[in-house]
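protien #1 (seq + structre)
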Amino acid sequence: MPRYIFLTLCSGIMWIEHDVQSIFKGPASPYFPVCTTPLLGDAEIDDFLQQGLEAADLNDLEETRRSNIIIPDTQSECTSHWLNHGGFLHTLASKNMTKLYPLTSARVDIENEPELDHIQRSVPTLIAQCLEGVRDWGKWGWEVIHFWLNSTQITMESNKPFQLYYDPGTVARYSEFWLRFILFSLHTFELNPGDNDVNYTMGQKQVLHKLKELILKESPTNVDLHSQLLDVSNLFISQEDFESNSTSPIKYFCCVMGWDSAKEWWR
């Protein structure tokens, strides 16, 4: 049985052990003994209490697991019209978020997956270069491209140009989100259908496979990495799933990112 000791802070002495303890104030407070030896000397009672403590630990673990399983119940107090409208509950129904959410991390396990360090270093650099390339168009008199780039219509330019200047913190945050998506894709695109509900197209799987082969090389060049990352990004960004019954990888990733793993609740 665990050893319980009541400690009192005393002047001049850090701590003194006592055999009794009270949860009440005042000199007439009732005290109860603190066991440092088997309870009543009965090993069976001690074993019974120990089993109870172990069972309580298992119940806590099970409660944590259940709290992280998504249940598409519209009557649940943790749901909202926004969650249903965004498809979060339907997309992640029955998923264990304790296993799924960690796949969205931007951290890389260098010891077990050292090749992913290439991705972690390349994505922010590539995005910074892309943004600088957009700014460079003005030097060549191509400002009209900024209006087309900002448009949501493929056949019509926007009345406002694409934003060129952002707070450095904003660029870093956007870069991290895209890095997390690329790492999430590399971790899930080869999983078995039973373990993975992310629907990748054949083209997306092919470019992800090429990217994985590239980073497994001893020293891939930045040029090759950036070129392959651009191919991967293009296929994901240009994908339309409005008329499809399947959820695109980007939308699936956003659904997972909506989960707060610390609070076991939606953000």
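ok now protien #2
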Amino acid sequence: MRVHIATAILSCSIVGLVASQERGVPQVPCFKADSGRVAYGEVVTSEDGDWSGVQFSFDVKTGRLRGWVVDARGGLPPEKRLDTLIVRAHGDSLYFAYYSDTKTKYSYWVRVSCQSLVGTARLFQTATDSGEVHKVRLKRTRSLH
């Protein structure tokens, strides 16, 4: 009898976890399908016209979250699709990563709200260097695209 109860509890827990992961969308109001793009981070220009900074933008299409990055270093590059984007099971956190043209990896683990992304980033990771870990707080902003 105890085995059946434990199995039932475990089965319900797994079903709940899988259902939550299958939503694929953070459980915050600004990530509704009709909300449009949501962007975080800042890209600015200096007095000499160089662009710098990073902006992440997200959109919900057909029940799935999609994400892009603009990583400005001198010029303003076109947006690039995130290489990895995962909504954590509870729907309040994201993991996302992208590779630069030089095969340098940038990874972010953040709690998501309609106001900001707050968490940790591993920057400048390569095949021979584990990179640098930094706390991050990216405020919501207007999308560049």
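The first strand starts at residue 38 and ends at 45.
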